[in-house]
Amino acid sequence: MAAAPDAVFSALADPTRRHLIEALASRPASATRLAADLPISRQAVAKHLAGLRAAHLVSVERAGREALYSLDPRPLGAAAEWIARVGGEWDGRLDELRRALRT
């Protein structure tokens, strides 16, 4: 199931969740390992990871007693496509304005 760009942008609005995305981009990790790099508790990290899961940005797999979280970059691509489309529309409008100002 793909996440809507709104869910992705909402998830990325928080700096802690962006940090988690960056950390998971290099390799899967447990909430415990991720919390070691942050000034917040493991429980707070788990809550942020739940938000990222809701936006379909991370998946989780059990490895013994630990849950390993992995980045799923596909929703980021959908959000980037939305940004490119909207940016392209504004580029066209600015080009029209430049042409109008030249005449």
Describe the structure.
- The protein has five helices and three strands.
- It has a three-stranded antiparallel β-sheet.
- The relative contact order is 0.16.
- It has a single domain, classed as Orthogonal Bundle (Arc Repressor Mutant, subunit A), CATH 1.10.10.
- The model has no long low-confidence stretch (mean pLDDT 90).
- It has helices at residues 5-12, 15-26, 31-36, 42-54, 74-102, and strands spanning 29-30, 58-63, 66-71.
- Strand 2 and strand 3 (66-71) form a beta hairpin.
Descriptive keywords:
three-stranded antiparallel sheet, alpha+beta, 103 residues, Arc Repressor Mutant, subunit A, 5 helices, elongated
Shape: elongated
Write out the CATH superfamily name: Winged helix-like DNA-binding domain superfamily/Winged helix DNA-binding domain
- Total separate domains: 1
Strand content: 5-15%
Helix content: 55-70%
Main beta sheet strand tally, sense and closure: 3 strands, antiparallel
The CATH class assignment is: Mainly Alpha
Q: In a few lines, what is going on in this structure?
A:
The protein has 103 residues and is of the alpha+beta class.
